[in-house]
Amino acid sequence: MIGYLIRRLLYSIPILIGVCFLTFVLFYMTASPTEIARRNLSAKNPTAQQIKDWEHQHGYDKPKWQQFVDTTEGLFLLRLGRSDSVKGERVMTRIKESWFPSFEIALLSFTAAITINLSLALVVAYFRGTYLDIYGTSLCVFMMSVTYLVYIIGGQFVFGRLLKLTPVAGFLPGWESLRFAFLPVVVAVISGMGASVRQFRTFMLDEMNQDYVRTARAKGVSEAQVLFKHVLKNAAIPVLTTSVQAIPGLFLGSILLESFFNIPGLGNYLVDAINSQDFAVVRAMVFIGALVTIFGYILTDISYALVDKRVRLE
Amino acid sequence: MKNAKVGSNAGILIQLFGTAVLPGCTLPRTSRVSRHDFMNYKNLTYRFRSIGTFFICLCVVVFSAGCGNSPYPAANSSRSILYLALTDDVKTLDPTIAYDVDSGSIVNLLYSSYFKYDYLKRNPLQLDLCLGARMPIVKKVRYLAAMPDGSKKMVDGQLWTFQIRSDLHFQNDPCFPHGQGRQITAADFIYSFKRMADPSVPCPIVAYFDTKIEGMAAYEAHNRKLINEHKKPDYSYPIAGLQLDRRNPYIFRILLNHPYPQLRYLMAMSFTAPLAHEAVEMYGAHLATHPVGCGQYVLAKYVPRGEIVLKTNPNRPVEYYPNTGMPGDRAAGLLVDAGKQLPLVNTVQFNIIREGITAWNEFRQGYLDATGVSQNNFQQAMPRPDYLSPDLAARGIRLVKSVGIDVDYYIFNMDDPVVGGFSARARHLRQAISMAIDEREEIDLETLGLGTPAQWLVPPGLFGYDPHYVNPYRVFNLQRAKALLAEAGYPNGIDPTTHKRLVIYYDNSYTDAAGRQALALHVRELDALGIDVVARSYRYNVFQDHVNNGQFQFANWGWVADYPDPENFAFLLYGPNKRPGPNESDYNNPEYNRIFAEMQTMNDTPARAHLIAELRDISVRDCPLVYQRHSEAYALVQPWLKNYKPNPIALDSPEYYRIDGALRAKLQHRWNKPKVWPLVLVLTLLIASAVPALNVVKQRANRHVRRSKPGGNAGS
Amino acid sequence: MQAFTSLFTISNLVPIVAIVVVLAGIRRAGRQPLWAEAYRRLGRNRAAIFSLVIIGVYCFVATLDSITWKSNALAQPESVITHLFNAMHVEAERTYSAPFAKMTTGEPHPHPLKGWHVLGTDGSGNDVLLETLRGCRTSIIIGGFTSLLITPVAVLLGMLAGYFGHRVDDLIQYLYTTLGSVPGILLNIAFLLVLGPGLVNLCFALGITSWVDLCRLVRGETLKHRDREYVRAARALGVRDIRILVTHILPNILPVVIITVTLNFSSLVLSETILSYLGIGVPAGTGSWGNMIDAARLELARDPIIWWNLTAASTALFILVLALNVFSDALRDAVDPRLRSS
Predict the structure, then answer these.
(1) What is the percent of chain C where pLDDT is above 70?
(2) Is the pLDDT assigned to residue C305 strictly greater than 80?
(3) What is the CATH number of the domain that holds A257?
(4) Cα B701 from Cα B699, distance rounded (Å)
(5) Mean pLDDT score of chain B, rounded to an integer?
(6) For residue B495, what is the nearest residue in chain C, using CA coordinates?
(7) Taking 60 as the threshold, does the pLDDT of residue B600 lie above it?
(8) What stretch of H or E contains C128?
(9) Tens-digit pLDDT profile for residues C129-138
(10) What is the tally of structural domains in chain A?
(11) Which of B93, B255, B702, C19 has the most CB atoms lying inside 10 A of its own CB?
């Protein structure tokens, strides 16, 4: 197990270097330092000299390979550096400031989604074959066919404007944040509900046709008990493993949700950085995103091994 | 599942594809029999239940936290807090660098300058003293000036003498001894000029000064050399044109190598606000988020992309609400607070809201104290121009019109072989295109009738604007335009060399929904002329790059005033200001340049107005620009916000606003009664719909036990 | 005839060829027992037939919109649908107008309309029905062309990785893990910026992110088949690796690939709206449901609410995606070998 983990961690180093390289190449293909300088100089018409000064200050006048080596080395040592924007804030400081809203919303929607989807899947599985099952699964297909954008626009319109239950957008720290998190979480849960419930239902029905379930039924165990005790336990394996893959999302947050609901989180930070071509921030955030993604993969494997004793990590 | 190939990073994931990628397909059954199915299940269901309980608790907490839609803590409604919206996050709070409106609206509250614009006076806008103790004294001087090439030359310059107030202090900040803001002297004003000329600080308007203030260019060159040698810039290097008085620490002088009356306006901008060298030395680039100013407010909280909160500065310069205004101001209640010390609200909170629809919703719910009327909420606010919708009027909301000092236009690239140059052919082509663009239609459809069709550069409200002048090539006339096109050698839009339609490349930065709509209109107008328009949309900074490098034929551009002087607009066509200066069309007419240079230094006399008219007539005939409009906007103001009067240039208005907190608390409560019943109804219906099914299942379960056969089929 | 050929451009052959190839492929596959059986099952599924008809209608509209000609030598080429609307005198108006309205709305002084519009007009005065129909082509191209781009690449790389293992496997896995570790939206944006805006470029950008999943799947499937007896037997008989891959393994994994691609199709269609929101969707002038829905963010705040644009686009999108989802479900049930074995 330990050996496996070490090997996995070592294996992630070339991947991270690859990610850095990809970011670097893509960035230089999409933007020239001159363009970034112009963007960040905040002047209506910066002079050529000002642009040159800026490039020098931010190290964009060094040879390209040197830039790549320097920045990659910095990232691996978790020295994320300063933003290229006029503010020039430390990326690490900003991450410390903004991780919480992203994390809160992601965690809430993650738990809420698993709970609700699993319960609904159980309900649908319990009522399998009845009109409820048919309507439920058709509803799932319906819900899968609506675009995310419509959910967001509709959610703000109904909850914020018509029912006046939640703020339309914004964020406050502390307990107040729950009021703001409510709507984004609802949208996140509803938009993912269709696909997940259908998937979970299949897991359950798979289990229900197993021999041990038949045995249990034959012994006179009630339908509800079969479902809640035996089926749920075994269906938990695929449910868990598919769900753990969502963990990287906890870090970056949902880019769309954050920008629509005006949440000062990391997703928004990343989008701003892309739009303002803030290379220093983009490369740092992509690097950390990749780090978390790889961590998520490893976690998936571990959780899988923990839940199912037959899987051994070697 | 047993043979999970682990060791490669995706080993487990592959095994999962049966479930992850193909939801609904059944897994091979043989592998699924488990030996420990009946073990541990209690533990797991227990865990499951606890998650459920957790979630229910969470819901309860959410709703007990008050299921209101207020974006603020509940008690704040009645407090003296002003809530405003910014359309974007500030780029910087550094007064030497900030130039965009969003940053400026914060910076101007944190940093005061020598002058400020009078809050109530209009037409013309009037400069009042702020940190200054008396109006500057301007003397003509003839002296030996240093030229850029190193030689010396006798010039007719100006010497400006400024005297500042003696009761000024910086805000309290750890960069000062004991954290107490020290006194401000004339040296702090000189320091901010030196910082503007520091090549490592990207001051956007340094070009306005560095060729004019004696010795500033030399200072810049000296420091650039130091920076290239990887040394720190040297602020002690003297600038001959910036002089301190030996006897009086509150007096400084600026020596200009040619007359520049616009300097007084620049002394009202935050660039020239006094800066503490202690702060710059301590915070460096962090000055962008850690302001140390001398304004009415200090920065209390800054959440990037979230909110910016300002609180009253205990060391603020003592200033009062003006005692006199324009006719009608008293009736409008704008003089109720006359003579009171500023500011009138203790706290100003700016919410950074990008989505216009969100800001509009929050305003309607009373959570923003004022908002602009944009194209999107226009009809909701105003069924027809100047008429507030009854719904909003009944709430006591006021509609306030404001006129911007700006101009939007299309530019032709004067260096382009097809549309550029001074030949009769190119001029006719430009004139034809100019006449084919129906500005009335553009204003009606893009800005819903708001805006004045521009005849030339100078906007209304500035000296030199002639309300009766009509630009002969900006009258929409498609017949005449087609005739001009034929004169230019393109009959019916056909290029005789290729026998195809003439192709015009139209560069723009219209990438959002409203922009796409505007673009479609512009293309339609030019298509009607019979030419082919190829529209190319870029992100704004890419577009800016194209225009600044002259890689365009025909493009959209605009200019917003830095200060209310026609020079700030007429210089858009001044030859020496060519790209990347503000003259993006690269129009270079010697006659225009000569008259402009003469007009630039004059006071506002009839002779100056005459010269401005001459400039206009010359440039209108050459038609390097197609003038679109001068902007107009409406703002909506909540009934509890007092003293609202828009100012097209100054950004310090929140200092003068007053909030009636009791009224706000009452109305916010009345407007935002949450409705829970539809939610309850939907949930009840959903649960109720499950009841009949419950019976079905019960019957089936009984049957199953009897027959001991598995139930419904698993197919999906 | 001379005049006709100059007005009727060669690019019209592309959609026709595409349709012929797809139909021929379907027909040819029907000769194989596996697919013949699948067709039979599909034929019994009423929902599948119904959704197939709907998809067919969308494809038909998309084809009509792809066939263009110029009405005269100087005009821009216009599609069959545009010519049809022109013939019915459905002209562009000044700006918004409600369905069946007589006056424009959304401007200070309403103007009378030139004609009437079943679904109203949008902000630029274009008929919303026409715009909605033009959106079909964009969606089908985004789904279809992207699938066409990624499938060969993903299948080839996945099979190589799964079959040869070792170095090849490591390299290909490295490639897609690296790509998969960068947030997808970021890659989309970056590639679109590199390639520049445009429908085809959009497909490439979407392809960059969506081939990874398919490649992983193919690799896993190949891995499973590699050690089956029939492959071992072929190898023992000295059949070359390439031949084993093409004639033995490929036919066996093809059903899974086809099902995945069909499932993927609908998510590609949906992702167009998200890209439009981010400002990197298809350029203006190309009919696009994403752009129409994006515009609704502004339109919903108006009073009277401009609802027809959003409704038309999202309904059209919803029906297509729903039909695709139902059909791919049915297809999976019909083809899935694991279901058949039971």
Answers:
(1) 94
(2) no
(3) 1.10.3720.10
(4) 5
(5) 83
(6) C74
(7) yes
(8) helix C128-164
(9) 999 999 999 9
(10) 1
(11) B93
Expressed as residue numbers, the domain containing A188 is 101-278
Q: Which residues of C touch A (CB under 8 A)?
A: 174, 177-183, 185-187, 189-191, 193-194, 266, 270, 273-274, 277-278, 293-294, 296-297, 300, 310, 314, 317-318, 321-322, 325-326, 329
Q: Where in chain C is the domain with CATH 1.10.3720.10?
A: 5-90+127-339
pLDDT digits (tens, 9 = 90+) for A268-284: 888 778 777 788 888 88
Which of B61, B73, B545 shows the shortest C-beta gap to A178?
A: B61
Angle at B299 between CA B298 and CA B302, to 5 degrees: 170
Q: Residue A25 domain-assigned?
A: no
Is A17 part of a structural domain of the chain? no
Q: What is the pLDDT of residue C151?
A: 92
**For residue C278, which residues of chain A lie inside 8 Å, CB to CB?**
271
**Distance between CA B441 and CA B432 in Å, rounded?**
17
Question: Residue A142: its chain C contacts at CB < 8 A?
Answer: 322
Task: Write down which chains contact chain A via at least 3 CB pairs under 8 A.
Answer: B, C
Give the model confidence (pLDDT) of A147-177 as tens digits: 888 888 788 778 877 787 777 777 777 777 8
Average pLDDT on C194-200 reads: 81
Looking at chain A, how many residues does it have? 314
Q: What is the pLDDT of residues B673-716, one digit of tens each?
A: 888 888 888 888 888 877 777 777 777 666 554 444 444 444 33
* Three-point CA angle C61, C63, C68, nearest 5°: 110
C34 three-class SS? helix
Q: Tell me what pLDDT residue C113 has.
A: 86
Task: Report the interhelical angle of C308-335 vs C33-44 (nearest 10°).
Answer: 130
Confidence of residue B459 (pLDDT cuts 50, 70, 90): very high
Chain A: nearest CA to C307, how far in angstroms? Answer: 12
pTM for the model stands at 0.79
Residue of B4, B542, B696 lying closest to A130 (CB–CB): B696
Contact call for A42 and B673, based on CB within 8 A: no
Angstrom distances, CA of residue B218 to CA of A122, B6, B210, B226, B319: 79, 68, 9, 13, 38
Query: If you search the block for the tokens 């002084």, which residue do you land on?
Result: C109
CA distance linking residue A38 with residue A36, whole number of Å: 5
Question: Which residues does chain B have within 8 Å of residue A133's beta carbon, measured at their own beta carbons?
Answer: 712
In a domain, A311, yes or no: no
The fraction of chain B above a pLDDT of 90, given in percent, is 43
Give the minimum alpha-carbon distance from C253 to chain B in angstroms, rounded to a whole number: 13
Q: What is the mean pLDDT of residues B103-112?
A: 93
Asked, as a colleague might, if the bond just before B646 is cis with ω within 30 of 0, I would say: no
Q: Among partner residues C109, C123, C220, which is closest to B517 by beta-carbon distance?
A: C123
Q: Considering only CB atoms, which chain B residues are within 8 Å of C123?
A: 445, 514, 517, 520
Whether A199 is covered by a domain: the verdict is yes
Closest by CA position to A64, among listed A29, A88, A89: A29
Other chains touching C, judged by 3 or more CB pairs under 8 Å: A, B
* Cβ–Cβ below 8 Å for C186 and A270: yes
What is C5-90+127-339's CATH topology? MetI-like fold (1.10.3720)
Q: In B, residues 540-569, which contact A (CB 8 Å cutoff)?
A: 541-542, 544-545, 548
